Amino acid sequence: MSTIGFLGLGIMGKAMAINLVNAGFDVTVWNRNPAKCEDLVAIGAKLGTSPKSVAERCDITIAMVSDPAAALDICNGPEGVVAGIGEGRGYIDMSTVDDDTSSLISNAITQAGGRFLEAPVSGTKKPAEDGTLIILAAGDESLYQDALPAFDVMGKMSPYLGEVGQGANMKLVVNMMMGGMLSIFSEGISLGLKAGLTGEQILDVVNAGAMANPMFKGKGAMFLEENYTTSFPLKHMQKDMRLAVALGDKLDQPMPTAAIANEAFKQALKAGFGDEDIAAVYKTVK
Amino acid sequence: MSTIGFLGLGIMGKAMAINLVNAGFDVTVWNRNPAKCEDLVAIGAKLGTSPKSVAERCDITIAMVSDPAAALDICNGPEGVVAGIGEGRGYIDMSTVDDDTSSLISNAITQAGGRFLEAPVSGTKKPAEDGTLIILAAGDESLYQDALPAFDVMGKMSPYLGEVGQGANMKLVVNMMMGGMLSIFSEGISLGLKAGLTGEQILDVVNAGAMANPMFKGKGAMFLEENYTTSFPLKHMQKDMRLAVALGDKLDQPMPTAAIANEAFKQALKAGFGDEDIAAVYKTVK
Amino acid sequence: MSTIGFLGLGIMGKAMAINLVNAGFDVTVWNRNPAKCEDLVAIGAKLGTSPKSVAERCDITIAMVSDPAAALDICNGPEGVVAGIGEGRGYIDMSTVDDDTSSLISNAITQAGGRFLEAPVSGTKKPAEDGTLIILAAGDESLYQDALPAFDVMGKMSPYLGEVGQGANMKLVVNMMMGGMLSIFSEGISLGLKAGLTGEQILDVVNAGAMANPMFKGKGAMFLEENYTTSFPLKHMQKDMRLAVALGDKLDQPMPTAAIANEAFKQALKAGFGDEDIAAVYKTVK
Amino acid sequence: MSTIGFLGLGIMGKAMAINLVNAGFDVTVWNRNPAKCEDLVAIGAKLGTSPKSVAERCDITIAMVSDPAAALDICNGPEGVVAGIGEGRGYIDMSTVDDDTSSLISNAITQAGGRFLEAPVSGTKKPAEDGTLIILAAGDESLYQDALPAFDVMGKMSPYLGEVGQGANMKLVVNMMMGGMLSIFSEGISLGLKAGLTGEQILDVVNAGAMANPMFKGKGAMFLEENYTTSFPLKHMQKDMRLAVALGDKLDQPMPTAAIANEAFKQALKAGFGDEDIAAVYKTVK
């Protein structure tokens, strides 16, 4: 069983690391603010002193940080992952980062002799806690094989998607579809209510039919309760839709529905709902 | 247990009537081409000689015919339902008809002393056979109560939605959402394929996540097999999306995503795919 | 020179009738509220007592009323145009009416032995006063030829467009393009302002280039002054865009840009700007 | 009168430089392929040996090259503009380049002591020859003042738009509006033709009304002749629309009509019309 390093103990990372420890992995954790490591150490994790020292000590080091800048930060510098990775050890960035950042990190790790995987996830806090994330892995295939036991603990599926970049692409495809679905769902609920149907009637019918899906169940209830507690921030969804449309532009793939759904999310952003849940797109539609 | 008349034994009607007979209802059938009644008679149904005679004889008469013209036709004239309905008996039109047709029939039945329900269904051949249709009932509430045992045999849910017109409105809301979902799904699959992912990878990830739904499973497989065998004809979907957008116009409800998805289906219609399955919208997107 | 009857002396009709009188035509006027006839009589028009009597007396009777209901009203009944039109005289409806209304009137006039033209106009109060309307004539071609001298007084162009219905179709085509242009113009101005350009800079550049057009000059100034004084009510434009999109639906012509511009106008309608000028679409875009 | 250097004698640059020489300016020209300088020298221009030598010799050096790479190329290196610009002399890049390229050049020139203006133009070959370009100047205001006499020769208007970047932004705003207008115009013509109107009738009515503009006149004739001879390549228009939509994304400005028009141009690009004129968008709409 590989020894695992885990960098970044935010909401997502902490839940994932706990699952690894509980599954019996030898886990060494590090976080910029070390106080967040305490709960992990309490259940048996070791405490790392820097990204470099974690990468030196572990077979596979996993990062789950909040943005591209943080992802670069823990890699670079005298105390960064690159300085410690050495020959043949593995580094897996599970953060959501853009193409350029992923390439930069991939190149730096590879040139230092390490193996690299990008592995962004689909799913939020609850699936992270339940170990039911969808892990979109791409990059070094031998590292993917080595990491599978850990992926199996953190997620319910973890397909290998090809070279670095394909994990990010899959995430854009998935999120763009989610955004489009939320947009048409918002319009459908709004139309039905204006026509005199009740929200419960509409949701019951939708939930019973061929369209029934967990997202509509969850977000539909939020629409009717006017509850937009953030599970996935709207501004992040809009960013992904923008990137998906841009990818379509690059690949000469027309995507009118996605383009218009993106505008709906932009409208919500303009209205000041960027930090609320993606469900808040409904507020500008209704 | 009410005696049931059943007018129209096409693909849908035949399956629904068989279920009623098999459930023990006393069913009298009629079809324009009487040959189609044989299978029903063979399992115990009685043979009616005209819509009028069926309506005279049965507590509740159900119609399931192909279009508004046929729906009007079986109601009017000396041998029509209206001539036979009499005081207090019930008539349920489960065909998909427009608002105006539904109002005409509702008024004619009511003026003749009968009770009326519109009850269009969501679901195609398989759910009709399995008794898992979604029945969208609206109109006379006492008739709805009387018809519930029959609805329970034909469908898995049959909410009462209010006055005549609300069944049709719910169907537009549902179909508009389905059309929008198919449009964004087509774009997502197309984008993923152009980016180098495989169709199987994309469908696996979608089917594992919060968006997973029976329609994507079914239609996604059809996309990849380039199989557009008609289950729900594309031209009917486009008609419903057009009517949904028109309803939004009437109710001052902006629906940009629906409007654009409607244009995608129009593009498919223009390309000659109107009689293929709704999945054929993918052919003009990819 | 034909004798001309003129029914309807609202803002548009009055200006058009004055031009006919001033050009030397023998004009008989009628208006529901007869007080509005005084100014016309003062400059030499004769006073009609009913639509019927006007139609009886004049070679060509023109109507310019506010809506389809009024257009039907002056035709029907014992004092209506149809009762007076007789063999070979001409009736020209210059009001903006829908297809069905136009067909009803056309049939009634024709069956009474009269000749019929629909001739909706493009242009508002100022062009009506200046005699520079665009007259979109369709129907009886001999009547068109007879009416040309009068059209030349009221408009700057009056093409003959074919059978009844084509005048209305042309008007939809024209108004749909205007709506689309206003929508993209609103977005362009909004984008430029957000990017730090001034409105004057943008309008100057637009007005100097290949896109320069009278509408942008006029509406652009209104945007910057936040002046939405009604020249063409937004709700009428939205209605025409809706009808244009519906016509495209009927003819299998995809029109995504028009469909989306229609949604922008619906948004403005929902925001309560229906009675303001079409320029008010800018308020929901900016 | 300032001495003028002119770098880049393609279709646009040659026409512009000829106008400067003919207006009496002391012009020194340079082109990567020196053969293209002959016509200029024949009418009195001096021949420069490198971008550096031109920049050293002239008060103001103007560049008009084909793309960002070429724009960077003539600036950098031992023989580039930056090496020769020196204290206080001016450099004006009239090429169409992206933000980043413009910033790089601006910084390099400024650090070398020079003054910089970006001044992309709106207009193609004919306006370049006629001296009726629209010049969108932004950057050093004193250089703008010095360059005005030359701008007046090359263009019909040359507003000063603010700091570096605003010239490019204005160009995006203008081109996005043009793209949107072409898209709605294509739909309108297509709808009218399908409804049975003739192209001539539609264009006549449009050209007579409030929407009349030179672009519709020119492109409308091209639609009807199915002539897509390139004046402005479709792929460049699509690029500008994409950048405009991206700018809107950055500034939280929803732009649904522009987003959808962009998709229409993408559709045309996918169909292989990228090197044809922007009018070719009509081929995918009709």
TrEMBL record, chains A, B, C, D:
<keyword id="KW-0520">NAD</keyword>
<dbReference type="InterPro" id="IPR008927">
    <property type="entry name" value="6-PGluconate_DH-like_C_sf"/>
</dbReference>
<dbReference type="InterPro" id="IPR006115">
    <property type="entry name" value="6PGDH_NADP-bd"/>
</dbReference>
<dbReference type="InterPro" id="IPR036291">
    <property type="entry name" value="NAD(P)-bd_dom_sf"/>
</dbReference>
<feature type="domain" description="6-phosphogluconate dehydrogenase NADP-binding">
    <location>
        <begin position="3"/>
        <end position="161"/>
    </location>
</feature>
<dbReference type="Pfam" id="PF03446">
    <property type="entry name" value="NAD_binding_2"/>
</dbReference>
<dbReference type="InterPro" id="IPR029154">
    <property type="entry name" value="HIBADH-like_NADP-bd"/>
</dbReference>
<feature type="signal peptide">
    <location>
        <begin position="1"/>
        <end position="17"/>
    </location>
</feature>
<dbReference type="InterPro" id="IPR051265">
    <property type="entry name" value="HIBADH-related_NP60_sf"/>
</dbReference>
<keyword id="KW-0560">Oxidoreductase</keyword>
<protein>
    <submittedName>
        <fullName>NAD(P)-dependent oxidoreductase</fullName>
    </submittedName>
</protein>
<dbReference type="InterPro" id="IPR002204">
    <property type="entry name" value="3-OH-isobutyrate_DH-rel_CS"/>
</dbReference>
<keyword id="KW-0732">Signal</keyword>
<feature type="domain" description="3-hydroxyisobutyrate dehydrogenase-like NAD-binding">
    <location>
        <begin position="165"/>
        <end position="284"/>
    </location>
</feature>
<dbReference type="Pfam" id="PF14833">
    <property type="entry name" value="NAD_binding_11"/>
</dbReference>
<dbReference type="InterPro" id="IPR015815">
    <property type="entry name" value="HIBADH-related"/>
</dbReference>
<dbReference type="InterPro" id="IPR013328">
    <property type="entry name" value="6PGD_dom2"/>
</dbReference>
